[in-house]
Amino acid sequence: MSRPLRKVVFPVAGLGTRFLPATKVVAKEMLPVLDRPLIQYAVDEAVDAGADTLIFVTNRYKHSIADYFDTAYELEQKLERAGKKELLALVQNVVPKHVRCVFVTQAEALGLGHAVLCAKPVIGDEPFGVILPDDLIWNKGPGALRQMTEFAASEGAGAIAVEEVPHEQTDKYGIVDAVPVNERAALIKHVVEKPKPDVAPSNLAIVGRYVLPGRIFELLEKTRPGAGGEIQLTDGIAALLAEQKVYAYRFDGTRFDCGSKLGLVRATLHFALEDPSLAEATRQFVNAAKH
Ligand code: UTP
Q: Which one of 9, 10, 19, 28 would you pick to mutate in the ligand 1 pocket, going by the greatest count of ligand atoms within 8 A of its CB?
């Protein structure tokens, strides 16, 4: 796995039930954090990691994601005629010119492992990244996926992003049992999907970033439905561990769980406080709300 990472998969075919009724018609990944949809933060991170091919695994209700990355002729013409160059650049540069977007359908939401498997025909047998856009990870320096890609390439291994979570929350995540090799990386011995706190091997939880070899596809093809009747990516990774090294990687950055309402609020406040035109008013609002 020492080749550079070129392809990144975005599994975005989930139902997004925690944001109903909005997600009846708005894809969860199109919910904005300030003025940018969640998917934009994920795509920027993939491009930062070196990707030139972005593979979106969508479903029939999520045309808005493809529309977002398509050319908006009428809008662009209007902005051009009005001389609104900055806005035009904003609309035209959602992905750099050298990057191509590929859309694959997951006909039925059969689980994250199944969604990743749907990208097999586009990826073939090369290392690739996976980003779950609802885990928004922000870092001033290199993005989380770039950090992981560089580490995985140097080791010729796979890498999975992990974060420490409170012990009582282990049953919400895939949890790793791993031996530290340096301050960021630990060699994974095994992974367990959503263990109860009393049987969890650690509190290191898998979050939405992966660097995986093409071999994972064959293993996912053999994976039977696991927790929740879904084909779990974690089960495919468990099979991979019997064959190759996979590291748990504690990335440098802040994760916002934007699959939950509180996480989306936190991310929005964070980026508002980062924006010089909004920071002061946001701070005043938050301080006033304390009283
Ligand atoms: P979640 O567990 O967050 O599910 O999926 P969800 O449907 O998106 O949201 P809720 O829980 O109903 O609110 C984790 C990731 O896996 C993708 C989702 O789109 C999300 O990015 N996924 C999940 C698929 O693409 N297909 C699936 O069959 C399941």
A: 28
For ligand 1, atom 10, the nearest C-alpha belongs to 16
Q: Which atom of ligand 1 is nearest to the CA of 10?
A: 21
pTM above 0.90, yes or no: yes
Pairing between strand 204-212 and 158-164? antiparallel
Between CA 177 and CA 160 the distance in angstroms is: 12
- Contact (CB, 8 A) for 131 and 209: yes
Residue among 134, 207, 233 to mutate when testing ligand 1 (max atoms within 8 A of CB): 134
CATH class as words, domain 7-259: alpha beta
At 243-275, the pLDDT tens digits run 999 999 999 999 999 999 999 999 999 999 999
Instruction: Render pLDDT for 105-147 as a digit per residue (tens, 0 to 9).
Output: 999 999 999 999 999 999 999 999 999 999 999 999 999 999 9
Residues 127-145, buried b or exposed e (16+ Cβ, 10 A)? bbbbbbbbbbbbbeebbbb
Residue extents of the structural domains in the chain: 7-259
Distance 95 CA to ligand 1 centre (A): 23
Q: What does the alpha-carbon distance between residue 130 and residue 221 come to, in Å, rounded to a whole number?
A: 17
Choose the residue to mutate in 10, 15, 64 for probing ligand 1, maximizing ligand atoms within 8 Å of C-beta: 15
CA-nearest residue, atom 2 of ligand 1: 14
